[in-house]
Design brief:
The protein is 43% helix and 16% strand. The protein is α/β, with parallel strands linked by helices.
Length: 376
C-alpha cells in the first residue's frame, strides 16, 4: 500500500509523511513549504509560491487574505500532478479539486480535519466574539462551502480527538466515516528534568478567544498571589480589550517561542493549562504531559483522549470559569498532587503517544479503508 500526503503548509503532515516513509509506504509529500524546509529523505513536490504569498500578504498589509486562492491553487495543482498511490491524505479546505480525480484513479481519499466540524467551529467562535464584544472575522463562505463539499466527497474524515469527531456525527456525517487518531509528541525534545518548577501556570498557543484565554485570565485571579500566569504565543488582534478589563500584574505575555524555548518552559512551569472552547486536539497538551507538567485542559480538546481525568491530567468543561479556578487552585496548593499528575502524564504519553504510535494508528486506519472486513 502506498499513501500520498498533501498539506498546504505543515501542520502534522510532515510527521505523518515521515512515519509512512519509515514503513516504506510514502508515495509522495506535497506541500507549499520550499524543499529546503522539508525532511531531506522524503520524496517531495512543493508549490513554494503559495507559501510565500501566505507569509508576505500580512506583512504588506494587503486587504483581505489569500486563503481561498491558496486552497484552490494547491488543490488544483495536486489534481494535475497526482502520484501513483492507493490512498491520498489531504488537508481540509485545500483538497476539493483533487478528490474526484484521485478517486477516478482508484485512490481512497482521507480528509485530515485539524479542528471540529466547520459549522460547529463557526457557531462557537461567533457566539464567543459576540459575548465579549469583539469583532468577528468570519471565515470566507466560499471556504466553508469547500469544506462541506469535502466532507461529503471524502472516503474518510480523520480528526485528532473524540470531541471533534462528535461534532461531525451531530451534523449528519455517518459515524463510520469519521475516525479519530490522536496526534503524537517527540519524546526526546519534550521531557522533564530534575530542576525546580516555578509557581507558574503556562499556556502555549494563540492568545485569543478560541483558546479560552478570557476564562483563563479570570480563573487565574483565584490562585495565591505568589503565582504567575505566562501566556506564550502570538496575541490575537482585539485581545487588548480583554486585557484592559483585568489586573495584568501577574500575567506575562511571552510572545511566540521557539520549539527549544517552549520545551524549556514546560520543564519550568508547575502547571500547564489549555482551556480551549474549540479545538482539534491541541498538541501542546501532549508536549506538556511529556515534560512532566501537571496539565489542566478543557473537554473541548484532545484532553479526554490523552488520559484519564484526575489521574493523568485534569479536565474541565469549556468556558466554565468557576470550575477552572477550582482545579487550578487545587493544583497550586498541592505540590504532591502536581508531582503525581506530572509523572503519570509522562508515563501515559510514553506508552501510546509517540509519533511512531500515531503513524501505526494511521496505517491501521488506511488498511481498514482499503481492505474493509466483509459484513457477516
Amino acid at each position: 500500500m502506498k499513501v500520498a500526503v498533501a498539506v498546504h503548509g505543515r501542520f502534522h503532515g510532515f510527521e505523518l509523511a515521515a512515519e509512512l516513509y519509515a514503513r516504506r509506504m510514502l508515495a509522495r509529500l506535497d506541500t507549499t513549504y520550499p524543499r529546503f524546509a522539508c525532511p531531506a529523505r522524503l520524496k517531495v513536490r512543493t508549490v513554494p509560491a503559495l507559501e510565500i504569498l501566505r507569509r508576505v500578504w500580512p506583512r504588506l498589509h494587503l486587504p483581505g487574505n489569500p486563503d481561498l486562492f491558496i486552497a484552490q491553487s494547491f488543490a488544483r495543482s495536486l489534481a494535475g500532478h497526482l502520484p501513483q498511490a492507493d490512498i491520498l491524505v489531504g488537508w481540509s479546505g485545500a483538497s476539493l479539486e483533487a478528490i474526484r480525480p484521485a478517486q477516478a484513479r482508484g485512490m481512497k481519499v482521507v480528509l485530515e480535519r485539524g479542528s471540529t466540524h466547520m459549522a460547529h467551529q463557526t457557531e462557537i467562535l461567533r457566539d464567543a466574539y459576540g459575548r465579549f464584544g469583539l469583532e468577528w472575522r468570519a471565515t470566507d463562505p466560499r471556504l466553508i462551502a469547500r469544506e462541506l463539499a469535502e466532507y461529503q466527497q471524502a472516503d474518510l474524515i480523520c480528526t485528532g480527538c473524540s470531541f471533534a469527531r462528535q461534532t461531525f456525527v451531530e451534523r449528519g456525517i455517518a459515524p463510520s466515516k469519521v475516525a479519530v487518531n490522536p496526534y503524537g509528541v517527540d519524546l526526546d525534545s519534550f521531557s522533564p528534568d530534575a530542576g525546580p518548577r516555578l509557581k507558574r501556570v503556562l499556556f502555549a498557543g494563540q492568545v485569543g478567544l478560541r483558546k479560552g484565554i478570557p476564562w483563563l485570565i479570570e480563573a487565574f485571579r483565584a490562585l495565591p498571589t505568589d503565582w504567575e500566569l505566562h501566556l506564550a504565543g502570538p496575541v490575537e488582534p482585539g485581545m487588548e480589550q480583554i486585557f484592559a478589563r483585568h489586573d495584568m500584574t501577574r500575567i506575562i505575555l511571552r510572545g511566540p517561542l521557539s520549539r527549544q524555548a517552549l520545551a524549556e518552559e514546560y520543564r519550568r512551569a508547575a502547571i500547564f493549562c489549555l482551556p480551549s472552547i474549540e479545538e482539534g486536539f491541541g498538541m501542546v497538551i501532549l508536549q506538556a504531559m511529556a515534560s512532566g507538567c501537571a496539565v489542566v485542559a478543557s473537554t473541548a480538546t484532545g484532553g479526554p483522549d490523552a488520559g484519564e481525568n484526575g489521574h493523568h491530567l485534569v479536565l474541565v468543561e469549556p468556558a466554565d470559569t468557576a470550575a477552572l479556578a477550582e482545579r487550578l487552585t487545587l493544583l497550586a496548593i498541592d505540590p504532591d498532587l502536581r508531582q503525581r499528575l506530572g509523572q503519570a502524564a509522562r508515563d501515559r504519553v510514553s506508552r501510546g503517544f509517540s509519533w511512531n504510535d500515531y503513524g501505526q494508528r494511521a496505517v491501521q486506519l488506511y488498511q481498514m479503508l482499503t481492505n474493509p472486513k466483509p459484513v457477516c
